[in-house]
Amino acid sequence: MNDLTARKPISKRVRFDVFKRDGFVCQYCGAHPPGVVLECDHINPVAQGGGNDPDNLVTACLPCNRGKGAVGLDVVPQSLAARAAQVAEAEAQVAGYNAILEAKRERVENEAWRVVEALMGEARCSPDELRSVKTFVERLGVHEALDAADIAYPRSGTRDAKWRYFCGICWSKIRGTFA
To answer: What is the DSSP letter of 153?
Structure first.
């Protein structure tokens, strides 16, 4: 005697109570009579030891039940709509994150040019100098970098001397040794 012949049938009363509890609607796809024939599906399959009590039964249309077979609900694949919604949510999060990073990049760029102008009296510098000023703005904040520029600007000497003095002030502030 194999497992199928030993399987106990679901009583008509239990079957009707499960259909009634589930609103006579397939719990997988939402189909309902007269378009489909409903069946009782075992949540924990009989092949895996599931019984016929109502807590282990769910209303399913014939195509969903036969397609699912003796597979537990924990391994039923995610629906295409649910997967699409999950991908859309992930894309929205990535787009939001990228927008925040772009806004930060633009803010740091604008603040760096403010510091360059305060330091040099004009908005001109080399790409390497601008990269350094951006680093100072990110690590110290724009106001600390502007303070360093205000200290370095009146210093007599060449543009290069002002630049070195400004960088020294900023690094001292970053290290916490600037008095």
So the answer is: T
What are the CA-CA distances from residue 67 to residues 29, 31, 60, 142 (Å)?
Answer: 12, 14, 10, 62
| Residues 46-57: tens digit of each pLDDT | 888 888 889 889
69: alpha, beta or left, given left = phi > 0 and alpha = psi -120 to 50? Answer: left
pTM: 0.52
Q: Indicate whether 4 pLDDT > 70.
A: no
Distance CA 142, CA 124 (A): 18
φ, ψ (nearest 5 deg) of residue 83: -65, -40
Would you put residue 36 in left (φ > 0), alpha (ψ -120 to 50) or beta? Answer: beta
Q: Do 126 and 104 contact (CB within 8 A), yes or no? A: no
Name beta bridge partners: 60: 39
DSSP state letters, 18-69: HHHHTTTS-TTT---TTSS-EEEEESS-GGGT---SGGGEEEEEHHHHHHH-
